[in-house]
Structures are given as C-alpha cells and as structure tokens.
C-alpha cells in the first residue's frame, strides 16, 4: 500500500526527520508520495517584495489566503520552484530518486477556478473578486502510479490546474492539506499529515489531551469540535481523504523521531473510515 505524507510549511516544522524517514521506508520497499505546503515561505517572499499577504475569513469561520494575481505569481515561483526543488534535492541526498511535480504537470490535480469568494468582514458577508484559487475535482492517479512503478518517489506541490469558465486552463492555488487528501483518496493510501503538534487535542493548549484515535461518527464529531484554527482545515481535509477512499488519516508531529514510521505505528491522532456517517437509511422492522 502507498503512503502519502504531507509535510507542513509552518516555520516550526523541520522536514529533515521526515525526509530521512521517507528514505528509510523507501529503502524497505514502501511506496511513498510526498506532498508539501509552504505558506510561510510564500508570505516571507511577499514581504521581501514589499507585498502584504491577505487572509480572509469565510462566513463559516474558516480563515484562508486570498490569492490575487501578484500572490499567484509568487506561489508559482516559491512552491514548485524553490521549495519543491529543495525537497527533491534533500531526498536525492538521502538516496531517494525523487521527482518533483506540481499539480499542473500532466493534469495531476485539476479543478475549477474560483474567481470570487464569500468572506466575512466587519460582521458582514461580502463577495471578494479576483481570487486565483480552486477546488480539486480530479487526480491523475495513473501518472503517480507510473512514476512510482518506475522506481521514483513523487514530491508534489500546488498550484493545481484550474479550468476557467471559457474552458481555458490557468494555474491556481489550493490548500496543500486538501491536495494531499485528494491524492491519498485516489490512491486508496494511508495519509500522514505532519505538522508542528503531536495530534489533535481536546484542549488546543494542552498536549496531554491528545485524541489518540477516532473510529466512529460520534468520535469524529468530538474531533471536529476540538479542532481550532489551522487544525480545522486539516480535519476537513482528513474527512475528504476518507470520503475519497483513503485507508486512514493520521495527524502527527513532523518533529518526532521517525515521524512517519511512528505515526503509522499509532502515534498522533488516527482517523479511520468508520468515522464517516452512514447515510443509508435503516431498514424498517418487519413482523
């Protein structure tokens, strides 16, 4: 079975241990796909260029980036450029024959561009136009399987290929957690989401309240209730991964020893397909 590893882009995430663990697992014959974020690097680059990153809040309370045309240009430069190349370089030095791919390559990740987003500003709902983001609707699993079968390890980043209303394609931003979720679902893989905390906590400020696992809809509701801030998106992505066919989703620390191996062994917070609510109606009782 393939394992998809999402390495977070937060400043507190050190990818070195995860990359060494990828090398160890590949050496043991495991099939791996690495997906990476990089929002911190994008923000830093924007600031170096004299630009201010823009974040907006949806009516549902989720905070996300607003990607205008200038920010999209920086994304193209930083994500499939410097960050992806740096990770591929590091994996090559670990003995892994890695191949860098963006979501636009071979229509790896495809969806529709959302040029306008609903936001909440000063307590009012508004429409903000000029966005360059999209929702992933399809994954070219054949491309990934071909790369893996050839003995290579894919390293994937956004942007993704977004279709405009006129049918033309354009590169658009997408959440890296959701990109990893889409890939894990398409490959029916285990998804390990590595971040700067050791899992999902009942109390976000208390690591001792870490939730070890969720295997039922009721347990998953408790996980969703506990998730706050950046973890909200990761839980949303986890649900999408399981709905798409992923074998499991584990949220764990990137900074642990052998972070992927330990996550697969039960560290972190493990979410299983049983957390999805069964929408099938119960059969009526018969006499």
UniProtKB/TrEMBL annotation:
SUPFAM superfamilies named in the record: Carbamate kinase-like
Gene Ontology MF term list: acetylglutamate kinase activity; ATP binding
Coiled-coil annotated spans: none
Record keyword Nucleotide-binding present: yes
CC annotations in GO: cytoplasm
Protein name: Putative [LysW]-aminoadipate/[LysW]-glutamate kinase
PANTHER family noted in UniProt: [LYSW]-AMINOADIPATE KINASE, N-ACETYLGLUTAMATE SYNTHASE
Site feature Transition state stabilizer, where: 6, 234
Localisation: Cytoplasm
GO biological process: L-arginine biosynthetic process via ornithine; lysine biosynthetic process via aminoadipic acid
Catalytic activity line of the entry: [amino-group carrier protein]-C-terminal-gamma-(L-glutamyl)-L-glutamate + ATP = [amino-group carrier protein]-C-terminal-gamma-(5-phospho-L-glutamyl)-L-glutamate + ADP; [amino-group carrier protein]-C-terminal-N-(1,4-dicarboxybutan-1-yl)-L-glutamine + ATP = [amino-group carrier protein]-C-terminal-N-(1-carboxy-5-phosphooxy-5-oxopentan-1-yl)-L-glutamine + ADP
Domain Aspartate/glutamate/uridylate kinase as annotated: residue spans: 1-253
Residues covered by region (Disordered): 261-287
Enzymatic class: transferase
Family classification: Belongs to the acetylglutamate kinase family. LysZ subfamily.
The keyword Nucleotide-binding belongs to this UniProt entry's keyword annotation: yes
Function statement: Involved in both the arginine and lysine biosynthetic pathways. Phosphorylates the LysW-bound precursors glutamate (for arginine biosynthesis), respectively alpha-aminoadipate (for lysine biosynthesis).
EC number(s) stated in the UniProt entry for this protein: 2.7.2.17, 2.7.2.19
Alphabetical keyword list: Amino-acid biosynthesis, Arginine biosynthesis, ATP-binding, Cytoplasm, Kinase, Lysine biosynthesis, Nucleotide-binding, Transferase
Alphabetical list of Pfam families matching this protein: AA_kinase (PF00696)
Pathway(s) this gene product operates in, as recorded in its UniProt entry: Amino-acid biosynthesis; L-arginine biosynthesis; Amino-acid biosynthesis; L-lysine biosynthesis via AAA pathway; L-lysine from L-alpha-aminoadipate (Thermus route): step 2/5
